[in-house]
Amino acid sequence: MRLLCWTVAVAALAAPSAFAQSLHIEGVTGYLSEYALSADLSRESAEGGTEELSGPLDVKHVGLCSHSGPDETFGQLKIRFRDLSHRIEATLNYDGRECVYYGLLSKSAVGVMTCTNNLTLPIGLWTK
Q: Counting beta carbons within 10 angstroms of the beta carbon of residue 44, is it exposed (0 to 12), middle (13 to 18) or buried (19 or more)?
């Protein structure tokens, strides 16, 4: 029993390190999930025990309907891990705006990101 408890404790302490070096992120945003997101993040800092990763963001229009603007936009994604339960703070900079999302890093979770110009959009982010 002690071995089991010790193993669980070590795994819990090591969990953030699994994300520490690099991470491939995918996701969707838009009211009809008409934009696909992808980013390859690498470790930026780990101040105060908080893991932070950042990297280039690729946003592609994948919806069937027409839209105004380019079909592909590039930007920057920064993710800060809040705790061991995959709760994150994500900052997305693309298409001339900054958006912030507080929520889960999970394919089954959809949240809302708040952007400049009082724009709010549904978003889902997960690891691949």
A: middle
